Amino acid sequence: MLTRAEIALVWRLFQHDASRNRKRIALTVLAIAWGTLSIVLLLSFGEGLKLAFHRGKSGMGEGIGILWPGSTTRAYMGLASGRTLAFTDEDADILKGRIPSIASVSREYSKYCSLTAGTKLVNARTRGVDPSFGELRNIIPRTGGRFVDDLDLDAKRRVVVLGDSLATDLFGDVDPVGKTVRIDQSSFLVIGVMQTKVMMGMYSGPDKNQATIPASTFKSMFTGQKVQNFIYRPVSMEVADEAKAEIYRVLAGKYHFDPDDTRALSVWDTREDQRIVGNIALGIQVFLGIIGALTLFVGGMGVANIMYAVVKERTREIGVKMALGAKMRQVMAPFLLEALMMTVVGGVLGTLAALALMGVIAVLPLKGEAFDFLGRPTFSPAIAAATAMVLGTIGMLAGYFPARRAASVNPAVSLRYE
Amino acid sequence: MIRMRSIRKVYSTGRVEVEALRGVDLDIGGNEYVAIVGPSGSGKSTLMNILGCLDTPSSGEYVLSGETVGGLDRNRLAEIRNKRIGFVFQNFNLLPYASALENVELPLLFAGVPTKERHERAAAMLERVDLQDRMDHKATELSGGEMQRVAIARALVNRPAMILADEPTGNLDSTSGKGIVGLFDELHASGQTIVMITHDAAVARVASRVVQIRDGEIVEDQRAA
C-alpha cells in the first residue's frame, strides 16, 4: 500500500511533529501505555484466576461422577414407593463389570472417628475406600508416602492416609509417615499425607481434614456400616451420559425400581460443574478484558485528539499534497501510520511495565488461602495476541477518523489556509 | 489543449449565493504563455482552481488535453493534477521538513515512479533550475528565490501539459522575482505551456497573451504582437 519512500517520509513527519509537540505526544503515549498496562494486568490476573479455578475444580477429581443411594418415588413391580435403597460391596463389581462405559469405580464408606496421636485428639471423618479412590479423587500423597494399595485391601491392613491439614493438627511439623495414629482406639500406621490442593467442589467436607483407610479395614472395624457412595469415572467424557443411564438401568434391575425414577439414585456428574466453572472463569476474564479495553480506549481518544489537531495544523500541507496529485489513500496513510506508531510505542511500553510488575508480584511472598484461590497473574500468548488486537484496533480507529477528515479537505480552500 | 465553455462557479455560504464565475469561455493552445490578471475578488483565483482541477465548476464544460474534467471523482482528479498540471504557488508550499530533492520527488512519489528513476528525474530538474548545489538542503534552509525554484522544479518534474502559477513572484524581492520571471521565459521558449495568475502588470507583460477578468467574466483577451 505504501512505498518505502512514503513510509520514510511519514517517519520524518512524525519526528517533525514529535519535536514540536513533544509534551503532548509523550502524554498521549503515556496514556496508551497506562491503558495497555491495565489491560495486560487485568487479563493476566484473569488468566491466573482461570488457572486457579482449573486447579480448584479438578481438586475433587476430574470428570468423575459420585453415586449415592436414594429413595424410590414410584411403586414398581409390587414394591411400594418411598423405599430407601442401600448399596452393597458387590455393586462396585456390578457397575464395573456390566457397564463398559465405566473405567473405574471405588467404594466410599465414611464415619466420624476420634483420631489420636500422642496427646493430640482430633475428631475427623474417616473413610474406607478402594485403591482407585486416590486417583479418582485426586488425593496424591506427598513424596515419601503412598496411597492405599491392593495388598492393604486384601490384608485389611491398618494403614491410613491423612489429609494435610489433619496431619498438621495431629503431628505438627513432624512428618507423620511411619508414625502411628489411633483411630477409635485401634492403631494405624500412617503411610501417606495428601499433597495440599485447592478444592472448589466437595461433599462431606474437604479432603484435607479427612483420614483414608482401606475399605476392607473399615468394614471389619465398623460392622453394619453401609457403602456411603461410589465414585466412578466414565471411559471418556463423551460416554458420561451413557454411563449414567446405564447405572440407572443396571441398578434398577438389581434393586427393582423404575429406571425412570430419577430420585432412586442420586448422581453428581462433576462434568457439568467443571463446564460451569470454566465458563465463569472465562466470563470473569472477558469482563476484566473489557475493563482494560475501556481504559485503553480512553488512551485511544487521546491519540485521535492529537491526530485531529495534527490534521488541522497540516491542512495546508494536505492541500499541497493533493495539488501535487496525492490520492485519498496517500493523504490518509500518514495519519493512520502516525496514530499506529504512537499506539505501538505506548503499547510496548505498557506491556513491558506490566511484565515487570508481574515479575515483582511473582517474587512477593504472598501466602494464604485467598492467594491459592485467586492464583497469580499469568501472562500468556493469548493475552499478548488479545492486547495487540485491541491496541491495533484502537490505533486504527484513532487514526482513521482524523485521516478521513484530512482526506475530506478541499484542496482549493486549504491552499489558502493559514 | 484547454477548452472552457460557459464555466460558472457559484459558492453558497449559508443563505447567500456568490457567483464567482459567470460563464467563462477560454481556449488555451499548446506552448502559450497566458497571464490571467484582475483585481482581487474578480474570480481569478476561482478560475485558477478550476483550471488546476482543484475545484469543479458548477456548470459548463472543461476539456483538458482531450479529457472532459467535469464529473470526475477525487482520485481521478488527483491523477490529472499529478500528470497534467504543475503548480507554482505564491508562498512556495514546500514541505519544510523535507530536502529540496525530496520536495521535487513528491509528485513522482504519488505517481508511483520507482526510487532510482525518481531520484534521477528530480535531480535533473533541480539542475535545470540551477540548484544542483542545494539538493540536500531542507526547504527552510533556502532563500525565497531558491524555494520558488524548487517549487518550479517540482511543478516540472512530472512533465505536465501546463504550468499553473499563482502570483509566483508575489512573495519575492524584485531581484529574485526577475530571476523567476526569466526562468518562466526560458521554459516557455523550450515549449512549455504556462498559465500565470497575477495582479502585477509588469509580470503580466512578459506573457504572450493577457486575459483580463473582472466580476467573474473575461473582459479582455489580448495577444502580444
What does this structure look like?
- The complex is a heterodimer of chains A (418) and B (225).
- Chain A has 418 residues and is α+β, with helices and mostly antiparallel strands.
- In chain A, 55% of the residues lie in helices and 15% in strands.
- Chain A has 14 helices and nine strands.
- A six-stranded mixed β-barrel of chain A has the order 2-3-7-4-6-5.
- In chain A, strand 5 (180-183) and strand 6 form a beta hairpin.
- The two termini of chain A are 31 Å apart.
- The mean pLDDT of chain A is 89.
- Chain B has 225 residues and is of the alpha/beta class.
- Chain B is built from seven helices and ten strands.
- Chain B has helices at 44-51, 74-84, 100-111, 115-128, 144-156, 174-189, 201-205; strands at residues 2-13, 16-28, 33-37, 59-64, 67-68, 85-88, 162-166, 193-198, 209-214, 217-223.
- In chain B, the strands form two sheets. In chain B, strands 6-7-8-3-9-10 form a six-stranded mixed β-sheet, with helices on both faces. A four-stranded antiparallel β-sheet of chain B has the order 2-1-4-5, with helices on one face.
- In chain B, helix 3 (100-111) packs across helix 4 (115-128) and helix 5 packs parallel to helix 6 (174-189).
- Chain B is globular and about 50 Å long.
Describe this protein with a few key phrases.
heterodimer, A: 418 residues, alpha+beta, 6-stranded mixed beta barrel, 9 strands, 55% helix, 15% strand, B: 225 residues, 6-stranded mixed beta sheet, 4-stranded antiparallel beta sheet, 10 strands
Number of helices of chain A: 14
* Sheet with the most strands, sense and barrel status of chain A: 6 strands, mixed, barrel
Number of helices of chain B: 7
In terms of DSSP E residues, the strand content of chain A is: 5-15%
Which residue ranges of chain A are poorly predicted, with pLDDT under 50 across at least 5 consecutive positions? none
Given the C-alpha coordinates, what overall shape of chain B results?
globular
Question: What is the terminal separation of chain A in angstroms?
Answer: 31 Å
Helix proportion of chain B: 25-40%
Share of helix of chain A, binned = 55-70%
Structural class of chain B: alpha/beta
| Overall mean pLDDT of chain B | 91
Q: Write out the strand line-up for the largest beta sheet of chain A, numbering strands in chain order.
A: 2-3-7-4-6-5
Judged by helices, strands and strand pairing, the structural class of chain A is alpha+beta
Q: Which percent range describes the beta-strand content of chain B?
A: 25-35%
Mean pLDDT of chain A: 89
Q: What is the overall shape of chain A?
A: elongated
Q: What is the terminal-to-terminal distance of chain B?
A: 21 Å
> Taking Cα atoms only, what radius of gyration of chain A do you get, to the nearest Å?
33 Å
Task: Give the oligomeric state.
Answer: heterodimer
Biggest interface reads: A-B, 26 and 31 residues
